[in-house]
Structure of Paraslipin:
Amino acid sequence: MDPVQIAIAVAAIVLAIFVISAIARAIQIVPQAETRVVERLGRYSRTMQAGMHLLVPFIDKVRQKVDMREQVVSFPPQSVITSDNLVVEIDTVIYFQVTDARAAVYEIANYIVGMQQLTVTTIRNVIGTMDLEQTLTSRDQINGQLRTVLDEATGKWGIRVGRVELKAIDPPVSVKDSMEKQMRAERDRRAAILTAEGVKQSQILEAEGQKQSAILKAEGDAQAAILTAEGEARAILQVFDAIHEGDADSKLLAYQYLQMLPEIAKNESNKVWFVPTEFTGALKSISAAFGAEEAPEPLERDPERGTDRKSRITSALTDPAEALRLAKQEVEDATSDATDAGTRSGRPRDPNAEKGQN
């Protein structure tokens, strides 16, 4: 081949490559959730949305690709002074979304830096009017104020601020120590209060239980006493009815009364022993029952001691031992008298005496 043909072939190849590259650059495929700002001869032409687009080679140019999804930007900690002159470190996180690609490209050079600086100044203005306690407890209020200010300022940039969050608020170390001590003391106080309340409730419940137990025990004792009294009353009535049905005379009653006297006198713990007034009547009944003659008893002198009877009674009232001895002596005398009367009553009766009595 001659040189002319070679040159023509090379030119054709170069032209083909140029045309292919131009066509490739002219065809633009925009992915979803992305826009591209197109300039024609240095001026804004249009914004290409998702899909395939054709550009005029060497005339149209893509200025910037803009992501239309919601984005998250975390800013480094910023030192902020509160109203009580304490320096706190605050980290912020901003959620924003580009709504107008043209404004985001042409209204501000770098909207990320612009939002960061705007956030810092707004935080300092808001925190400067609050003390440390309000700053720690008013996050929602601070977030709302930051979002309002940023949304108003970034609206002309084609950006919508969704949320602004304070990621961390770090007070000074000394303040942290004081806060920890305060919280520990508060927890100890609450624990002591809860413990005291528990002890109080326990004591109240225990007292209520003792009260109910005492009431039930008293009711049980009362019922038992009532039942016992009723049983004793029924027993007395049955005995009384049995006595009346058996037609017991004074002889039997006097003999039974006499048998109980030694049992009463057996108890050594009795310091004072009272002789009932019916004692003489009982002896008379025994003597009359067995036909014994009543022996005259001296009223003024005791045959054994030769002392005045009234003085013995007076000394017995003042001396418990003497009273016990006197009572036992009376019981022994009464028993011996009853024995003698029974012996005499067992002798054969004298018919002449009975006739004389008739």
Strands lie at 27-30, 34-40, 43-48, 51-54, 60-67, 70-81, 87-98, 159-170. The chain has four domains: 3-65, 70-171, 175-247, 250-349. Residues 265 and 328 are 6 Å apart (CA to CA). The first strand starts at residue 27 and ends at 30.
